[in-house]
Write the structure tokens for this entry.
Amino acid sequence: MQRMAHPRLDHRQIGLPHVAANKSHADIPDDSALRLVLLPPEKFYNKTETRLVFEEALHYTRNNGQKPRYRGNRLIFLAADHSTLGRIHDCLRTALAWKSIVEDVESNRLNIDLVQKKQAEKELNIAEDVLPPNIQRL
């Protein structure tokens, strides 16, 4: 029995990603290349309410500036998941709060004892470890 070969996408087959938060639909070329469109966080995906992300995707697939888009099927969309986005925001707030406390202690704007200082540093490390690696670099 022969196996059917499934086509695989090569990274060279997809054009550079387009961040939709910084660009309009006119900035994404209407050519034959596959285009990855990263939708802004405000246009998130939610399992119970998909209208927001689908309307945004339709807007990009139908329009190319003032003219219609003829190759809308060449666009691939990536949207943030609403529940994951909320957890990332919470983790980021926690990490920033602990970082602020540690910086205030180091610059003598906040006077706490050594045990509290060590706990703040420990909590900062824990909070930073929870963040995805690409957010930690910010």
In short: The two ends are 52 Å apart (CA to CA). The chain has four helices and five strands. The longest strand covers residues 35-38. The beta strands are 18-19, 35-38, 63-64, 67-68, 75-78.
